[in-house]
Amino acid sequence: MERWATFDCYGTLVDWNGGIRAELEKIFGTTRADELLERYHELEPKIQAAKPGASYREVLTLALERLAAETGLTLPEGEASALAHSLPDWPVFEDVRPGLTEARSRGWRLGILSNTDRDLIDASIEALGVPFETAIVAGEIGSYKPAYRHWEVFYEQTGADPAGHVHVAQSVFHDIAPAAELGIPSIWINRLGEPEDDPRPARTLSGVAHLADALDALVPA
């Protein structure tokens, strides 16, 4: 049986908070950056739910525009697409390349299920520096997690045996909760130090340095 580990990308492998916060700070200054980041995370999933067919570039732009409008801040001319332009440069967490390389060395096939667009995920995969067998993106399937379509397309495209599949992600809302609803075991990468009393993930890690051990414990070779 092939063993598959699928991943959320932004927040799990790529520093989503760091990338967005840096751009908000660049545009609006440091004083309100943390407050704006928190509000941004509230706006984005609402836009995705309301416009499942929108590209992620559109979502990023709409969210930034709404963030500026509702907080009374001025979005400089030409900066509405700043987040989309900056995304390929968002930093990769330092533990990612060695952690994923070790998982691959043990026979795990890797996939990405991401709320993004093809060109953006391609740029991020290049930055990750680790091969992935597949990457399923919202911009091509017309659906954003936590809806189930990413997982459905994954099984349709790969023919993966659910018994050999584990999903790995940082976001409980976007990934861990729907994976649990679908009966898919998950590993929660708790990079934000949130309370670890949620029973839904099968394992909880603070990063991916020791991911291969956790994967092997769930689906032995």
Order of helices and strands: EHHHHHEHEHHEHEEH
CA-atom Rg in angstroms: 17 Å
CATH homology superfamily name of the largest domain: HAD superfamily/HAD-like
Main sheet overview: 6 strands, parallel
Indicate the mean pLDDT: 96
Strand content: 5-15%
Number of domains: 2
Would you state the CATH class of the largest domain?
Answer: Alpha Beta
Annotation field: number of helices: 10
- Terminal-residue CA separation: 9 Å
CATH architecture descriptor text of the largest domain: 3-Layer(aba) Sandwich
- Regarding quaternary structure, what we see is single chain
Estimate percent helicity: 40-55%
Contiguous runs where pLDDT drops below 50 for at least 5 residues: none
Give the structural class: alpha/beta
- By CATH, the topology of the largest domain is Rossmann fold
How do the strands line up in the largest sheet?
Answer: 3-2-1-4-5-6
